[in-house]
Amino acid sequence: MAARSAGDLREVVTIEQQSQVHQGGGVYAPGWSTLHGSVRARIEPQSGRQVMRAEQTVDRHRYLVTIYRRTGLDNTMRLVWTNESDRKLRIESVGLTPGDRRYMELVCYEEEPAT
Length: 115
What we know:
Layout: E1 11-24, E2 27-53, E3 56-68, E4 78-81, E5 87-96, E6 103-110
Antiparallel strand pairs: 1-2, 1-4, 2-3, 3-6, 4-5, 5-6
């Protein structure tokens, strides 16, 4: 069910894009920078599945995230779910909410924590 009012957007996310982060001494490394901060969102768990990573089974959780419509979002970006210990959600697909073009839906999956 899509959000129908601002009150349905109870979570807060930051939208990040891939960038080159200055490490000092003229050195840059791949990293993330904020594209949009404090974005109101509705986050609904969709499913979970197990995938193999480095010969270990890892749970991957998917979410449907509804936000106010924005331009320029794509599947190279991620969300940082502020209300949930800064969980990282990679954007898998972007689309408009059926029946209400004020909102958009992002299908996301939770990134594995860095080791």
